[in-house]
Amino acid sequence: MAESECHRRLTQALVRWVADDQLGGDPSLILVDDAFAGKRGFPPVIGGFRPDVYLAPGKSNVLVIGEAETAKDLERNHTVAQLSAFLGYCVSYPGALVVVAVPWYVVRCARSLLRHLQQRCCAETVRTVAIERLDG
Predict the structure, then answer these.
(1) pLDDT of 63-89, one tens digit each?
(2) Could you tell me the residue ranges of all domains in the chain?
(3) Among candidate residues 69, 93, 97, the one with its CA nearest the CA of residue 3
(4) 3-class secondary-structure state, position 90
(5) Which of 49, 70, 92, 100 is surrounded by the most beta carbons within 10 Å?
């Protein structure tokens, strides 16, 4: 599977997870950074980065920022900077959630990275999830 196809599948899984977890399965309020964003529009730029998935706090009970990362990209400087910006942004929103979709074999690495960045960014109050059981 090509990397772009892997990222697309991870993003789709991320949208499904957020819709199920926050919106009773309805993905219509979720902003997605893809070619099919259509009338909903794209997620906002946060700290110079556009997340793959964004659910505004006014559209649900909580702000959700989601990022899909391939195994190859998870530990790159760009990803670390992105996740740091998203965590720092979420500190201002009680109950905010940062969700990362990765292939199943790097879930523990993603969780470890999120914990490290939470401490580094003083964002321990931000909830984080690394989605499990995804192909990649």
Answers:
(1) 999 999 999 999 999 999 999 999 999
(2) 3-131
(3) 69
(4) helix
(5) 100
